[in-house]
Amino acid sequence: MLAANAHTPSLGPTAASPAFGLSSPGASASPMPLHSVSTPGPPSQRHEILCVFAIENSARMGSSFESLLISYIEPIVRHFRSPPIDPETNQPRPKDAPLVRCGLAIYGDYQPSSTSTLDTRYFTIDPVSFIRELRQIKFEYGGVFRNAVTEGLVSALEMFDQYDELRVSDGSSEPERHLILVADSDPHLTGCRCNSTERYDGFNYEDAAQELRKVVIPAHC
């Protein structure tokens, strides 16, 4: 988890890894833009990485985000995309670079503290457009002490689920999965309200954290 201030409880070393909707109650869900959608096809021979960035867009996060983007988020994306080193030549093998798909869950607080609680962008393999999308996030309003962190986590779970539903399986290895939580406030302790699937009805922060521990790569950040 990346945090401007260490207020948000960590998901633990087995749930959150190094970072990047649906909308608020009463508003319709945000459509996923076609230009940024990466639809799974036949599995690639390259190692595949799925990474969802759950980012708080509160006003208090705004002053810290550019620094987090430059110092942490961009280097993490570059790291994921780095080709492996050939053990014989000690040179990188660009053709074997991982296929990295980045998704985005932007969360704020519930109305009236935020005009929109959650907005998502489905996985894309274009790192340039993804970073551009991050720089277009508007940081405003939000809760003073708590925000809808659980909505961001559940959105990540739903994104992983949707990818699994669309993915063509031929027995190849499962994608490596990561969640990067960029937060600057505590989560609400109530159940989520913006989930799309009934499976996550009423999930609270601990429920979402427990579910994520089953699917994402253990890491420290």
Describe this structure in words.
- The structure is a single chain.
- The chain is 27% helix and 18% strand.
- It is an alpha/beta fold.
- The strands form 2 sheets. Strands 1-6-2-3-4 form a 5-stranded mixed beta sheet, with helices on both faces. It has a two-stranded parallel ribbon with strand order 5-7.
- The longest helix is centred in the N-terminal third of the chain and has 23 residues, at 59-81.
- The chain starts with a strand and ends in an 8-residue tail after the last helix.
- The relative contact order is 0.27.
- Mean pLDDT is 83; it is low at 5-37.
Features:
7 strands; 221 residues; single chain; two-stranded parallel sheet; alpha/beta; five-stranded mixed β-sheet
Structural Rg: 17 Å
What order do the SSEs take from the amino end to the carboxyl end, as H and E?
EEHEEHEHEEH
Q: Unreliable stretches, pLDDT < 50, 5 or more residues?
A: 5-37
> So what's the overall shape?
globular
Amount of beta strand = 15-25%
For the sheet with most strands, the description reads:
5 strands, mixed
Structural class: alpha/beta
Mean pLDDT, rounded to whole units? 83
* Share of helix, binned: 25-40%
What is the rounded distance between the termini? Answer: 6 Å
- Count of DSSP H/I helices: 4
Count of distinct strands: 7
User: Strand order, biggest sheet?
Assistant: 1-6-2-3-4
